[in-house]
Design brief:
The protein has 262 residues and is α/β, with parallel strands linked by helices. It has helices at 14-23, 46-58, 79-95, 116-131, 155-165, 176-181, 190-200, 235-242; strands spanning 3-6, 30-32, 65-67, 102-106, 137-142, 171-175, 206-210, 213-214, 225-226, 251-254.
Length: 262
């Protein structure tokens, strides 16, 4: 059985967020490490983090899936902005030491005209710097829809980053909306997509999933989430996904509407 949860606010502290998740029947959840549209981060209360870890253990939660800021573009063409993004990544991983043993997921970034190869090099350099801190968190690259100059719309691009970093702990978070919009038919051929993921990256690297429906048709490269069962993927696809033997024991996060998890 997978772990199921949704994206929740940590405004009231980590322990309060765990209690909210429990009230929803969840046994995992996602949260932003800082303002998702900016760079400000709330100071962590060590006592609150310890209480949260106690609650997670007591209630047999699966790994949490923290999410980096959307504005953190590790492969932007601007050297100063790129250096700032790399420092944000380092800081986020240090902050995750307060919640050891969990996951940290982020969007790889957009190369904005430099080309995929240059973008991969920039992302890998930032990851090497951040992972050298030996923080107690597993870092996950998120699959993307291939919108604009996004990196991560093809499994081969994520594999290139993983190979360039050379860290066996680096994993992947598969977003159902993103991969479907990106041209991987998880509705008509889930087995085939997972086989391709295994061939290119390796299923041992697949650590978590974002389970979101899509407002767009297959292969649209647009990335617009919809509530489960109300988009182009449909309920049957998600039933197959959550029951697939290769995906058991992994956290599955529904992120379309945190105020109305389904």
């Amino acid at each position: 059985m997978p772990y199921f949860g949704c994206h929740l606010s940590t405004t009231g502290g980590y322990a309060a967020t765990v209690k909210t998740a429990l009230s929803l029947g969840a046994d995992t959840f996602a949260f932003f490490t800082r303002n998702p549209r900016g760079s400000k981060a709330k100071e962590i209360d060590p006592a609150d983090a310890r209480r949260a870890m106690e609650l997670l253990k007591a209630h047999s939660f699966g790994p949490l899936v923290a999410h980096g800021a959307y504005t953190m573009n590790l492969c932007t063409a601007d050297p100063d902005a790129r250096a700032f993004a790399a420092e944000v990544l380092c800081d986020d991983l240090r902050r995750m030491d307060a919640l050891p043993g969990n996951f940290y997921n982020f969007h790889p970034g957009s190369h904005v005209g430099q080309g995929v190869e240059a973008g991969v090099d920039h992302i890998a350099a930032a990851l090497k710097q951040a992972l050298a801190q030996n923080c107690q968190v597993t870092v996950l690259l998120e699959t993307m829809a291939g919108k604009g100059s996004e990196i991560g719309g093809r499994f081969e691009e994520l594999k290139a980053i993983i190979d360039a970093v050379g860290d066996p702990s680096l994993g992947v978070c598969l977003d159902t909306c993103h991969v479907y919009d990106g041209g991987y038919d998880i509705v008509g051929d889930l087995d085939g997509v997972l086989k391709e993921f295994d061939r290119v990256i390796g299923l041992d690297r697949l650590k978590a999933l974002h389970v979101n429906d899509s407002k767009n048709p297959f292969g649209s490269h647009k990335d617009r989430h919809e509530c489960i069962g109300q988009g182009s993927l449909g309920e049957t696809a998600f039933a197959a996904l959550v029951n697939h033997p290769a995906l058991q024991g992994k956290p599955m996060i529904q992120a379309h509407d945190p105020g109305n998890p389904q």
